[in-house]
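Batch manifest, entry 17 of 40.
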Amino acid sequence: SDSTAAENTTPFVAFDFNDKVTSNYFNTGFGSIQSMSAFRRAPGFFDCVCYSGTGSARTVPHGLQKVPEMMWVKRRDATGFWSVYHKDVGATKALLLHDTSAEFSSTVFNNTAPTSSVFSVDSTNRVNASGGFFIAYLFATLPGRSKVGSFTGGTNPLTVDCGFTSGARFVLIKSKQEASWYLFDSVRGIVAGSDPSIRLDNANAQSTGDGDIIDPHSSGFTLVTTSGDYNGSGREYIFYAIA
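Output type: structure tokens
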């Protein structure tokens, strides 16, 4: 997610089973490995779409069976940006998954919000180059299981109600202003103490020195640190959480 490079082959990982991932990468001395590649298509929750570019503004059909609330689109066969749509940013703007940029005006989604059957792209190379190959990941709120939303920072503590009953196990937060994409999960620790975080926009090791950032809460999660990166006063944030 931190690279704009085209897709490539690798001898280290094989996604050639329908129930697991095989790898010799885990034994090559690169330290602890965590995989978060196990999203699967599920109506109302997540869909993955591959399409070919036409070079002309168009719609692309999807199988989410509801309106996508967040989308990540990337060109596969050439260098290209990760263009991000979020319902609380809107279709006339975009974010970039691979860097820390603030939201910016963009026509990549053809200034058109997605529907329950299609999403829109313009003619630009990053989402619809003629003859190019693209992949799109589509996310939605599934009550009790996932939540795509936003909040305004500055309160400490700040509890984000996702409609869950046993708390969030996966939380992704990005400021609409310039800041990293911060990822927290319960495997590494969403606890009442120091919380490791991974940043999707760089290849660094996880950060473990930021202290207590996020605490568990039955309805979703609670932010307990006031910071411009994830809970700054008056700043607006988007998030994606999974129970």
